[in-house]
Amino acid sequence: MAIKQHLRHVEKDVLIPKIMREKARERCSEQVQDFTKCCKNSGLLMVVKCRKENSALKECLTAYYNDPAFYEECKMEYLKEREEFRKTGIPTKKRLQKLPTST
């Protein structure tokens, strides 16, 4: 069965960007960790002290956000999830939670 390509505005403007943010944060995990660590160690001075880490994190995330191939990858992932939801009526998160465990 072919995946339907029509996307509503909320899918284009909210749902796919949400997947992009989640995946980009995973792929930039080193920069996320560095920035988080710096913020924890700097307290109120983090704005001044963590500029380098913040810039590195922004640069990494922006590279993914501006990558058309990455957008397409996230869009296809969303469309696959949407198709599965339409078949089963079960959201992805609940489907993953209900997987049988091997005991």
UniProtKB/TrEMBL annotation:
It comes from the Eukaryota. It is found in: Mitochondrion. The keyword Phosphoprotein does not apply. The keyword Zinc does not apply. Keywords: Disulfide bond, Mitochondrion. InterPro entries: Cyt_c_biogenesis_Cmc1-like. One of its GO terms (cellular component) is mitochondrion. Belongs to the CMC family. PANTHER family: COX ASSEMBLY MITOCHONDRIAL PROTEIN (PTHR22977), COX ASSEMBLY MITOCHONDRIAL PROTEIN HOMOLOG (PTHR22977:SF5). This is COX assembly mitochondrial protein.
